[in-house]
Every structure is written in C-alpha cells, then in structure tokens.
Amino acid sequence: MFLLFAAAEASAQKDSVRVKGDSLPDRFYLLQEVERDGVKLPEIEIKEATIHARSERTRRSEYRQYEKLVYNIRKVYPYALIVRSKLAEVNNDLKNYPDERDRKRYLKEVEKDVFARYQHDIENLTITQGKLLLKLIDRETQNTSYTLIREYRGKFSATFWQSVARIFGTNLKEEYDPYGEDALIEAIIKEMDAGRL
C-alpha cells in the first residue's frame, strides 16, 4: 500500500519543481501498471542479480582455489586488456602502410616496444597464469593466440610457438568458453568490472 501511495505521490509531483526541504528523495521509481490475466498490477523493472548457491561440498580447499583464481585473474586481466587495445591500435596503424615491407617493419617495431615494456612481467607469470592469460586474450580479442600469431607473424612462427606451448601443457588454439568450462572466470570478471570484487 505504501508503494502505491509513494508512486501516486511521485507521479503527481513529477512535473513540479523540487522545493527545498521537499520530503521526496532525489531518486524515486515510478511503478508501471501492467495487466496480467485480466488483473492490473503495479510493476517496476529491476536490474539482474546473480545468485550463486553454496554446495554442500564447499570446503576450505575449494575456497582457496577460488581465491587463487581471483588472484590470478587480477594479475593477468590487465594484460589481456592491453593486448586488446594494442591490437586495435596496430590494426588502425596498419591501414597507413600499403607496402608489405613497411608493414613488417612497423610490426617488428611494435613487437620490440611491447617486449621492452612487458617482457619482465610476462616472464614472471606462472604456467597457470599464462594459460589464463591466453584464454583472456581470446575473450578480449575474439581470436585465439595461435590465430593472432599466424596473422601477424606467419604460419611458421605460429606453429613454432604452438609447439613450445604444448611442451608446457597448454594450447594456443584453445578458445574461451564463457558458458561452459570458463563460466566461473566469466562470473569473476563481471564482478570485477562491476566493482563488486
């Protein structure tokens, strides 16, 4: 009943000028009237909320694994964002180089710059963080790391780096699956982007 009164009061004053000392809050929601099965009901649209149920098997080790995943995502996600922005910048700049020789020279300069800036940080990643970074690069660029290397460095280089990755137990061709295997990673990233984690 109070909600209906507040909504009626709000709609009555919606076109009026706010007076100092007015008791209405700065922000209020106007209820919409919706007819369902012949009955008119008040309705308000609310934002989607994600609720994760606790399983009975939740243990300390599972919680530690989750915390470790959050830590690893926080560590490598900024690099995936850097790759996305750098890739957009490179693609934009490549339009200015019609000659293949100039393009290769430009790509080598970009590669040297990137290695100079981030090589130390990337070398200090664990294998788990490296695997996670490869998935997040696919998430951010919609291209696997193998595809990116093949596109910008050539098929031979992509095959070489795929062989090296396989030695360390990973796959450059592995795709990010936000609705399957990587659903927890996706949920964590959404929570981080929303500022709740």
Q: Could you outline the blueprint of secondary structure elements for this entry?
A:
Layout lengths: L1 H12 L18 E5 L2 E5 L16 H35 L5 H24 L3 H15 L3 H9 L1 H13 L15 H11 L4
Antiparallel strand pairs: 1-2
Helix pairs in contact: 2-4, 5-6
Explain the overall architecture:
The protein has a two-stranded antiparallel sheet with strand order 1-2. The chain is mostly helical. Helix 2 crosses helix 4 (127-141). The protein has 2 domains: 2-43, no CATH class; 60-193, no CATH class. It is built from 7 helices and 2 strands, in the order αββαααααα. It starts with a helix and ends with a helix. Strand 1 (32-36) and strand 2 form a beta hairpin. The chain is extended, with a radius of gyration of 26 Å.
What's the number of domains? 2
Number of strands: 2
The helix count comes to 7
Main sheet strand line-up: 1-2
Structure class: mainly alpha
Cα end-to-end separation: 37 Å
Roughly how much helix do the residues carry, as a percent range?
Answer: 55-70%
Give the gist of this structure.
This protein has 197 residues and is mainly alpha-helical.
Features:
197 residues; mainly alpha; two-stranded antiparallel ribbon; 7 helices; extended; disordered N terminus
